[in-house]
Structure formats: C-alpha cells, structure tokens
Input
Amino acid sequence: MKLLLLTALTMAAFAANSVLNRLALADGAMSAEAFGVLRLVSGAVMLLVLLALRRQEISLGGWRRVWPVAALLAYIFGFSTAYAALAPGFGALILFSVVQATMFLGALVAREDVPPARWAGAGLGLIGLAWLLWPVGGVVLSWPHIFAMAVAGIGWGLYSLFGRRAGDPLQATALNFAFAAIVAVIWLLMSGGLETWPLKGVILAAVSGAITSGLGYALWYHILPALGATRAAVAQLSVPVIALAGGALLVDEPLTLRFALASVLVMGGVLLSLRRG
Output
C-alpha cells in the first residue's frame, strides 16, 4: 500500500508538470526551450540545497554520470521541441508508447521477470491511452517533431532505467539536474536564446522545476528499485489521465464520456500491472 501511494504521488507530480508547462506556454509569451532551462535550473537549486542540508559526502559518480544526464537532456529538450508542432494528445501518445517500449526492452535485456498479467496490463493501458489521446479530427504528421518526441521517450525511459541503480535517490537526482542545468544554460547562451521572460512563466517554471520535477524525480528514483522496470513503465500511463483531469479543473477543459471510459481502461491496466507476481 505504501508503494502504491508513493507511486500515485509521483504520477501526480509528473502530471502537474504537464499542466504547468501548458499554463506557462499557453499565451506564447515564453518559449518551450526557456521553460525547460528554467525548470532544470530551479530543480537543481532546490535539490542541491536539500543535499547541502544533509551534510553528507557527495560522490560525483565519474563518467557514469554522463549517461543519466544525457538521458535527462534528451527528454527535456526533445519534449520541448516536439510540442512546437505536435498536438498535445498525439505527442503524449508517442512519448508514453516509446517509454513503454524502452523500459520493457530494458527489463528483457536485464532478464527481469515479466509475468503475463503485466504484459496484459501494459496492452490494456496502451489501448485506453490511444483511445483517449488520438485526435478526433485526424493527425497532421510532422516527422522531425515525431522523431524529437521519440527521442524524448527514449531519454525518459533510459533515465528511469538508470534510476533502478541509484543508491542515493536525492543525491543522484540533484547531480543529474545540476550537470544538465549547466549544459542547458551554456546552450541557451550560445544559441542567443536570452529573452524577456514573463513573470507568470518564470514562476510556473520554478514551481515545475523545484517541486514537481526536482522533488518528483527524486521520489521516482526512490521507488524505482521496488517497482522494477515494467511496473514503473505501465504506471506512467496514468500521467496523461491525471493531467487531463487537472486541465479540466485549472484550464476549464471539458471532460467527456470518451475520457471517462478510456480512463477506466488505462487505470485498469495500471492496477493490473502493479499487482505482485
């Protein structure tokens, strides 16, 4: 029960990130790239402060740190680039489908036991997600942006797989964010992306980075060893459902019968996959 509650809290944090992103970028006053950089920087600051308060020895992790940092950057900027052209629902469908494939493949490579019920839960959840997110009016295909979202999905899937071996979740997440933030700031300066940022966007990016990303990702690394790759993968299918429900509350988006029925399928798949054995 404790693991289930912590998983639900983590998925709520991930969904909140989606809602905060949409609120910040809704009026076009802030670019997705700027939001991503501010998100990384504020997350790094929050986590490094918490790390300093613990007064424990810090291990940078050597060259092994490169891989989760690269995966985190691939996710943040692949996601931002893709949403410049993709419809949000279609983009989320690509993202979470690729995350599923990446993490299930990682589990198979690591010879992690994947019982039939978990395969069934993943399939049921993906069917529900496809029904929920597929655009009613058809899809405008932009292959460069689809590729960017696929890169984001692979990045997040790999970042999650790396989390299974994180001995200290807070330290691992803090260092990942810190190094990723340094790279992101350098990239922003070199690309001439400095601009006048609206106060609303800055506040939303700071909340997303410090709380729902920084603390949320640290909690994710904390529960990943207990969840395992495949259960963690399927659990994330609940994120778009929670985000759409949050959007209905905060952005006055309508909730439909399609949403209700598809959500039952998604959550049923998630609960089936979270069962032990």
Summary: The chain is about 75% helix and 0% strand. The two ends are 15 Å apart (CA to CA). The mean pLDDT is 86. The first helix runs from residue 2 to 25.
